[in-house]
Amino acid sequence: MKTIHLYALISILLLNSCAEKQSSESDSVNTSTYLDYSKSDDQFTGGIKMIPITTPKGTFKVWTKRVGNNPKMKVLLLHGGPGGTHEFFECFDGYLPKEEIEYIYYDQLDSYYSDKPNDSTLWTTEHFVEEVEQVRKALNLNKDNFYLMGQSWGGILAMEYALQYQNNLKGLIISNMMASIPEYEKYAAEVLGPQLPPEVYKEIKNMEANNDFENPKYSELVTEYYYTEHFLRMPMDQWPESINRAMGHLNPNIYVFMQGYSEFGVTGNASLKGWDVSKRLKSITVPTLVIGATHDTMDPKYMEWMSKELPKGQFLLCPNGSHLSQYDDQKTYFNGLIKFIKDVDNSVMK
Questions:
Q1: Residues with Cβ < 8 Å from 43, sequence gap 6 or more?
Q2: Residue 283, phi then psi, degrees to nearest 5
Q3: What is the pLDDT of residue 23?
Q4: Strand, coil or helix: 69
Q5: Which of the following is catalytic: 114, 152, 180, 322?
Q6: Active-site residue 107, yes or no?
Q7: What is the pLDDT of residues 32-67, one digit of tens each?
Q8: What confidence tier does 261 reach under pLDDT thresholds 50, 70, 90?
C-alpha cells in the first residue's frame, strides 16, 4: 500500500511540474505586446485614426490604420495612383505581423477613405510632402523608428519627402518607381510598347494621338495586353479581391490631373510631366531599398542604377514580378523587404 501511495505522489508531482512548465511556456509565448492595443488611444477604432491635415484651402482629414506595435520598426505606406488607396498593400497582412513589424495604412487626401475636397490646387508633390509630414507628427514617427515606403506614385512621394525631411527617417523603401518621368516614358516607348503585338500597339498609339481615351477599345486593349503582362501578371479573373477593390476606388480626377490618361507616359499638361530627381539621389543618405521587377512598367536596370546612386542604397529584383510585385513575386518581395527593415534596425542598434 505504501508503494502505491508513493507512486501516486510521484505522479501528482510530475503532473504539477508539467502543468507549471506549460504555463510558463505559455506566458513566455504571450509576452509580446505586438497585438496589444489596450494602452493605445486607437483601441476603440481598431487602429484607425482620421488625422487632420492643415492646407491653404482648409483642414481636412486623412484615413490611417495602424497594424501592430513595435517601438523600433514602424512603416508608413504610401500608395500609388495618384488617387489610389491603401488597398494595394493589403497583402502585407500576410507577412509583416509574423515578423512583428508595425505598419500603417494611409489614404492620401482625395483618395477613397479620406476627405475629398476635390481641389486641384492641392494636387501637387509639395502638398503631399507636407501632408506626409503632418501624418508623421500625428503618429509620433521619428528617426528612431520611422520607415517610409512608397510604391509607384507613392515612390515619387517617398523620394520627395526624403529630399526634404530625411532627418526624420530611419529607412526608406522605393518600390516600383523610377526617379525620372522622362526616363520612364523612354522605357515605355522604346522597350515595353514594341513588345506588344504590332497591330495592337499601333491601334493604342493611334487612339492616344487622337486623344480617344474614352474609347472602350482603348481600355480593352491596354487591359488585355499590357496590364496582365506589366501591371499584375495574372489572368484578370485571378486578380486578388483587394486589387479589384483598389481599382474600383481609384479617384480618376486626381489620377488624370497628375498622370494623364496614358499608361505609356504622362500625357498633356499633367502635373507630373517632366518630373526628375535623378541628379539629387546622391543627397539621400538614409539606408534605402529600391525594389524593381523584371516585367515592371518601370525599367529594372534604371532602378538598379538608382540604388547605386544612393549612398546607402540596396537593390531588390523580383525576377517574376511586375508593377505589383508584392503579389506576383510575393516571396521574393517580402523576404527582401523584411530583411532590409530588420538589417537597418540591427545596424542602428549596434
A1: 37
A2: -85, -5
A3: 43
A4: coil
A5: 152
A6: no
A7: 899 999 999 999 999 999 999 999 999 999 999 999
A8: confident
Phi first, then psi, for residue 116 (nearest 5°) are -130, 80
Q: Which domains does the chain have, with CATH numbers?
A: 48-182+276-349 (3.40.50.1820), 185-258 (no CATH)
Q: Looking at this protein, which amino acid is placed at residue 146? A: F
Cα separation values, 12 from 3, 8, 19, 23, 78, Å: 14, 6, 11, 16, 58
114 is catalytic: no
For the chain, count helices (H), then strands (E): 12, 8
Tell me the per-residue pLDDT of 224-260, one tens digit each, with 9 for 90 and over. Answer: 899 999 999 999 999 999 999 999 999 999 999 999 9
Residues 78 and 149: beta-carbon distance below 8 Å: yes
Q: Residue 6: pLDDT above 70?
A: no
Pairing relationship of beta strands 146-151 and 74-78 according to DSSP bridges: parallel
Strands 48-55 and 102-107: unpaired
List the catalytic residue out of 111, 295, 323, 329.
323
The reply to whether the predicted model has a pTM over 0.85 is yes
Q: Is the pLDDT of residue 173 over 50?
A: yes
For residue 103, the surrounding DSSP H or E stretch is strand 102-107
Q: How far is CA 69 from CA 34, 41, 43, 326, in A?
A: 5, 13, 12, 22
Residue 152 bears catalytic tag: yes
Tell me which DSSP letter residue 75 carries.
Answer: E
Q: Give the residue carrying C-alpha cell 486607437.
A: 42
Per-residue cell: 60: 481636412
The residue with greater pLDDT, 168 or 265, is 168
Catalytic residue among 296, 299, 328, 329: 296
CA distance 213 to 261: 7
The rounded distance, in Å, linking the Cα atoms of 113 and 130 is 19
pLDDT band at 97 (very low <50, low <70, confident <90, very high): very high
Query: Rounded distance, CA 284 to CA 109, Å?
Result: 26
AA identity, residue 317 = L
